[in-house]
Design brief:
The chain is α+β, with helices and mostly antiparallel strands and about 240 residues long. Helix content is about 40%, strand content about 15%. It binds zinc ion (ZN).
Length: about 240
């Protein structure tokens, strides 16, 4: 079991469950040096293997020179690691059910125990406040730092018209939160549809959020997802 193996499994898990598709990426902070992190070279997540993982410094420059194409949006990862010392894993995704909540005034709310962390508050990053007329991509350290400021101390931030960023103390939490953020957004839309404009929806209250979040480490699901992902990778060889 190694960190790099877990990182490769994370790409496969998120792709398998439709949280990332041909795009999106996940990184993990180095255990050896907190000023370094690991991220794949630019590649569709379902194709990522251990050979594709590169080491970056927190300015998102690759540590070893090479001419592999890099993810344009790697600054998301470096700038979040700079501002959040306790965060060791970052997922950037275009998870589809989450997008409507980034473009409307309807906030994501805690509705489902697997995604109780939503109750901590999920901010929305508005790229126009930093750069007008952008192509929405976090192409520069400046945009990465602005996104990290929007995220603040929270577990996730929506990126208007683009996707979201989800963080955790480890890969299993960042991956688990990304999976259940997508599910919870879908459940909230369904509940709002059933309830209609006058119906009542019972959200988690603050005490329920407080009781649920620290316990939720997604360990059982992570073990299953990881095992299946590593079996698939083995079968490809
Ligand atoms: Zn993106």
């Amino acid at each position: 079991m190694s960190l790099i193996e877990d990182l490769v499994a994370s790409y496969r898990i998120l792709a398998e469950h439709g949280v990332i598709d041909g795009y999106g990426h996940v990184s993990v902070r180095s255990e050896r040096d907190p000023k370094r992190y690991y991220l794949s070279r630019s590649l569709a997540p379902e194709l990522v293997t251990e050979n594709d993982i590169l080491e970056f410094d927190l300015d998102s420059n690759p540590v070893t020179a090479g001419n592999q194409p890099l993810y344009l949006e790697r600054f998301i990862h470096g700038e979040i690691y700079k501002s959040r010392p306790e965060v060791n894993a970052v997922v950037h995704n275009h998870s589809p059910s989450v997008i409507p909540f980034g473009v409307t005034s309807v906030p994501l709310k805690p509705i489902f125990h697997m995604a109780a962390f939503i109750g901590v508050g999920i901010p929305t990053f508005e790229i126009r406040k930093t750069q007008k007329g952008s192509d929405m991509l976090i192409r520069t350290p400046r945009l990465g730092a602005a996104l990290a400021r929007s995220l603040g101390p929270k577990p996730a931030a929506l990126m208007r018209g683009h996707g979201s960023v989800v963080v955790g103390e480890d890969l299993q939490r960042a991956v688990g939160r990304s999976m259940y953020l997508e599910t919870s957004a879908r459940l909230q839309m369904q509940a709002m549809l059933i309830a209609g404009p006058r119906g009542k929806i019972t959200w988690f209250d603050a005490a329920e959020v407080k009781a649920s979040v620290p316990r939720q480490d997604y360990a059982r699901a992570w073990d299953l997802w990881r095992k299946k992902a590593l079996e698939r990778i083995k079968a490809e060889r």
